[in-house]
Amino acid sequence: MNKTTLISAVRSYMNRPTLTDDEISLWIATVEGELNTLLRDHPRNLVRASYTQLAGLQNMPIPPDMLQLVRLASGTTVWDQYPATAVDQAAADGNAFIERGNCLELYPTPTADTLFTMDYHAAIHPLVDIYDENWLSTYFPDVYLYGALKEGAVWIKDDARLQLWAQEFARRVDALAAQGWNQNVGAVPAMRP
Question: Would you kindly state where each structural domain of the chain is located, as residue ranges?
Answer without folding.
Answer: 3-39+125-178, 45-122
